[in-house]
Write a structure and sequence with these properties.
single chain, six-stranded mixed β-sheet, 9 strands, about 20% strand, Spore Coat Polysaccharide Biosynthesis Protein SpsA, Chain A
């Protein structure tokens, strides 16, 4: 298994390097960063759809660059499973309507965040191909400017199973979109929230909560 993240532009490459070091410490995995300096940061998440073009690994632990792991996690127990391993996104009625305007058949509890996923090529490469197809088709116009809704729709179209873990494995909006829980509750803190937050300041603020090995 290998770790994979995305960094577009020097600032996000810096975030990616820190996240890769952090993931190495708590999972033992070496990681690669998908980079394309011609891509504007707002489009960087779409590089996520190219994962399988950048590694020969069968199993991948994907993580966004704006995460911090607080404690050890043995991700290897999820290798080679038919299900995508992820965490349900935080959804309000308004958020759901905005982000899933073209995904009416996906129920709120099944819509997952793509910022932390455990994947394998055998079962899941086809989902990335389907998501790319959706991105390229003009009739599919998600109001969400990231790849996440396309990816969720692709999973739905192909009827690929998803195993949703508790939110401590991807605590979305940690002290940005919602209050932080007890430190003992969190394995991965995820800044999230796009460019509206100073992610460097956020990282400096929360990194002291990382547990000793």
């Amino acid at each position: 298994m290998i770790g994979v993240t995305v960094g577009a532009g020097s600032k996000y490459e810096e975030f990616a390097r820190r996240a890769m070091d952090n993931v190495k410490k708590y999972t033992g995995l070496d990681s690669i960063c998908i980079k394309n300096n011609t891509v504007v940061p707002a489009s960087a998440p779409f590089l996520k759809l190219d994962i399988w073009d950048h590694t020969d690994a069968e199993n991948v632990f994907f993580f966004d660059a704006d995460i911090v792991m607080f404690r050890k996690w043995d991700v290897s127990v999820y290798k080679n499973l038919p299900s995508i391993i992820a965490v349900s996104d935080i959804l309000s009625e308004v958020y759901f309507a905005e982000h899933l305007v073209n995904c009416p058949e996906i129920k709120p509890g099944r819509y997952f965040n793509t910022g932390v996923m455990i994947l394998n090529r055998t079962h899941h490469e086809k989902v990335f191909k389907e998501a790319k197809r959706l991105v390229s088709e003009a009739p599919y116009l998600s109001s969400f400017v990231y790849e996440q809704s396309y990816f969720n729709q692709a999973v739905h179209n192909l009827d690929v199973p998803v195993a949703l873990l508790p939110d401590k494995y991807n605590y979305i909006g940690y002290e940005t979109l919602r209050p932080a829980p007890s430190p003992d509750h969190t394995v991965i803190a995820h800044c999230a929230g796009g460019v509206q937050f100073d992610k460097h300041e956020w990282f400096e603020r929360v990194k002291g909560r990382c547990q000793p090995i």
